[in-house]
Design a protein that fits this description.
Strand 2 and strand 3 form a beta hairpin. The chain contains nine helices and 25 strands. It is an alpha+beta fold. The N terminus and C terminus are likely disordered. Strands 7, 8, 9, 11, 12, 13, 15 and 16 form an eight-stranded antiparallel β-sheet that branches. Strands 2-3-1-4-5-6 form a six-stranded mixed β-sheet, sandwiched between helices. It has a six-stranded antiparallel beta barrel with strand order 17-23-20-19-24-25.
Length: 447
């Protein structure tokens, strides 16, 4: 007989994030998902019921299952990213409930950076608003492959199909123009539970899946072995003991692809070539290792390798550059300005850099670009050119979300300023359309 643990170990894992404007009901949706899928412990539900009673509410406020900070419960908003883990018999889930307020968009970037699916909520009474567009743009920039539009609070518009249809049409057109590959619209009421876990009895005109059904069945791929093999060196192991007098290994987590003993590799940015003499995983020697395993790689030649270097196949190595062109989302309160000195953190490597240019800023309403803004302020999305003091082995973000991303950091206090995605923004089709619409501008910088 198959046990529950054996069933869960055989299921796939889906990482997804919720997003949307403030008060659209994200935390309530998450609470409803956890409650109706029987993923809430009795003591947790009792604590929520008590907190709801103390606030004068007759029924338990399911949003409190994720709003754990005192300020969140007092204000009835989400401030920090709340991560929740739950499972059904069909799939395991890691959920990031992200804030809706504009000033916390930076947290949405954090939550969606590793997500394979984003649930964007819209209040049926308000329709698509600026923050909805902002979150759709962030999901597109972060190359989230699946987006769900959850039109919430349908109970407050009498479950009217025309209201849902108009919102779904507007959002789908906008997200498609950003290059989002798949968009699924679902009418729901998180408070009443309509179409969250169980089908709604009030919307017989809707024949699609519930939110949970879609989450359980959407195709996801975790096969990173087909990607370009990349191994950022995190730590050099050199014990120099009597037992291991000559051992030298390079430890880290394989970011993508697979590595084999005997394979010819390059160490970047130096470009020196050698072969893999051995791979150690969990104290044992193995012939092959793949992402996302943490391993120690031993090289045949005694060459200079340190933290921040990147090991990659000699015939499939990324380009080395000191001029980084990227799309960024500015997350700090202080602006990012041309000429500003920063630190650029890419995988395990941190180098000094300077912002050489900010060619454009994205206008979310119509996806047009504002040329030469001079600076980016909090929550702005724009294009930047950064010159680094040392060369980087950087992939395009479209090819690798792990080795194509980076952070810009304030060298004075370590504050994260900007999250960057190297290479073209959105998709090639979107860039081509933008180029056609703005032929007078330099096509290299168009969104």
């Amino acid at each position: 007989m198959t046990t529950t643990s054996e069933q869960l170990s055989a299921t796939t894992l889906l990482r997804f994030a919720t997003a949307g404007s403030v008060d659209d009901g994200k935390s309530t949706l998450v609470g409803r998902l956890l409650h109706d899928s029987k993923s809430v412990l009795t003591d947790q539900l009792e604590a929520v019921a008590l907190a709801s009673t103390n606030r004068g509410q007759e029924a338990p406020d399911l949003a409190l299952l994720t709003d754990g900070l005192r300020a969140e419960r007092e204000q009835g908003i989400t401030i920090d990213v709340a991560y929740r883990y739950f499972a059904t018999t069909r799939r395991r889930f890691i959920l990031a409930d992200t804030p809706g307020h504009v000033q916390y968009t930076r947290n949405m970037v954090t939550g969606a950076s590793t997500a394979e699916l984003a649930v964007v909520l819209v209040d049926a009474r308000n329709g698509v608003v600026e923050q909805t567009r902002r979150h759709a743009a962030v999901a597109a920039l972060l190359r989230v492959p699946h987006v769900v539009l959850a039109v919430n609070k349908m109970d407050l518009v009498e479950y009217a199909e025309p209201v849902f249809a108009a919102i779904a049409e507007e959002f789908t057109a906008y997200a498609a123009s950003l290059g989002v590959p798949e968009i699924t619209a679902i009418p729901i009421s998180a408070l009443a539970g309509d179409n969250v876990v169980e089908p709604s009895a009030h919307m017989d005109w809707y024949g699609g899946p519930t939110v949970l059904e879609h989450l359980e069945t959407v195709p996801v791929s975790h096969d990173l072995t087909a990607c370009h093999a990349r191994f950022p060196v995190q730590y050099v192991i050199r014990p120099q003991t009597a037992e291991h007098p000559d051992y030298r290994g390079y430890a880290g987590q394989i970011a993508a692809g697979a590595f084999r003993v005997g394979e010819t590799v390059s160490v970047l940015p130096s470009g020196r070539t050698t072969t893999i003499e051995g791979i150690d995983a969990l104290g044992e020697s193995v012939d092959i290792a793949w992402a996302p395993q943490s391993v120690t790689i031993r090289l045949a030649d005694d060459i200079d390798v340190s933290r921040g270097d990147l090991i990659a196949p000699a015939d499939d190595a990324p380009a080395i550059t000191q001029d980084v062109e990227a799309t960024v989302c500015h997350v700090a309160d202080r602006p990012l300005t041309v000429g500003q000195r920063v630190l650029l953190k890419h995988t395990t490597r941190t180098v000094k850099a300077i912002v050489k240019d900010i060619p454009s800023r994205l206008t979310l309403d119509d996806l047009s670009q504002h040329p030469a803004p001079g600076q980016l302020v909090a929550n702005d999305i724009g294009r930047v050119v950064v010159r680094t003091a040392e060369p980087l082995a950087l992939d395009a973000y479209a090819d690798s979300r792990r080795t194509g991303s980076f952070l810009l950091i304030d060298p004075a206090d370590g504050t994260t300023l900007t999250a960057g995605m190297a290479g073209a923004s959105f998709t090639a089709a979107t860039d081509a359309a933008a180029d056609a619409d703005a032929a007078a501008e330099d096509a290299e910088w168009n969104f």
